[in-house]
Design a protein that fits this description.
Oxidized Rhodanese, domain 1, alpha/beta, 2 domains, 12% strand
């Protein structure tokens, strides 16, 4: 009986993980993203926006794009620091954590968010090869 129960848990976990993966793919598909070239253009034109870096503080200290550092684990707690009346761009190292942050914040009612596609790695690759990344 215990083996059946354990098998049931394993099947449930596999089923849950497959559903979660499908849900994430659907949400990533419809998430608003901007490229590093678009971000650079916004910076160069002095457009009004807010940049939030959801990497850990030690990562931010290595290199950053002058955004506000709010690590992903605290993004909901510190969501009051995010603008609601101008575009907010969320960035991380590669775009994955920032995508998670966008999804979490959108569930809280934010509608002005964009994920920086490729994160600071894309920035190094396409904009500033001299920036330090890890």
């Amino acid at each position: 009986m215990i083996l059946f129960f354990l098998g049931g848990i394993r099947e449930y976990q596999a089923f849950y993980l497959s559903l979660r993966e499908k849900w994430l793919k659907i949400n990533f598909k419809y998430m608003k993203e901007i490229t590093v070239q678009e971000l650079k253009s916004m910076m160069d034109q002095n457009e009004e926006f807010q940049l939030i870096d959801v990497r850990e503080t030690f990562e931010y200290e290595v290199s950053h794009l002058n955004g506000i550092n709010i690590p992903l684990a605290g993004i909901l707690i510190e969501s009051d620091k995010l603008s609601k009346d101008r575009p907010v761009i969320i960035q991380c190292r590669s775009g994955k954590r920032s995508a998670q942050a966008v999804m979490l914040l959108e569930q809280q009612g934010f509608t002005n968010l964009s994920n920086l596609k490729g994160g600071i790695l894309a920035w190094k690759e396409e904009i500033d090869p001299e920036i330090d990344v890890y």
